[in-house]
Amino acid sequence: MVLCELAITAISLLASIVFFVQSLRLPQLPADPGGPSLFPRLMCFVTGIAAIIFAVQLFGNREKREEIAQAFAAFQQFGAKSEEAELSRRRLYIVILSALYPFFIVRLGFMISTIVFLFVVLKVFRVKFLTAAVYSLVLGYGVYYIFAEVLRAYIPPGMWLSGLLG
Fold it and tell me: Is pLDDT larger for residue 67 or for residue 14?
């Protein structure tokens, strides 16, 4: 849990910095000193300060520091054959898959990406092939149906498939 808090803090701080730098590219209007970049800069500043405060609180708490040290010690044994190391590897795979999922939604489309993502996640947790295939197909189509048909949300068709199909 502490590792998640640490990761969220680092990601929030990094995102604040990146968005602040990107907001510097927004046009400046002579009549408006803040211009359209004032609000994004302000939000980045507030988010960055909040992330720094949270990091100070996180590292200031003795119990949390010990949990962080234990979590990093577990990652040092990443290649070990223990059950705890296996669980750490699976968690890392899920994080990587979750980070790649939006990239593939844009390229392959929502339906195919969701089905493949669910299938791979289930296989990471050692679900049998047929069971993983059935669950990923049913859940993938179910989520698609809810968003596309019930909620009438825009579902990305995918750049690669729309390019192939014309």
Answer: 14
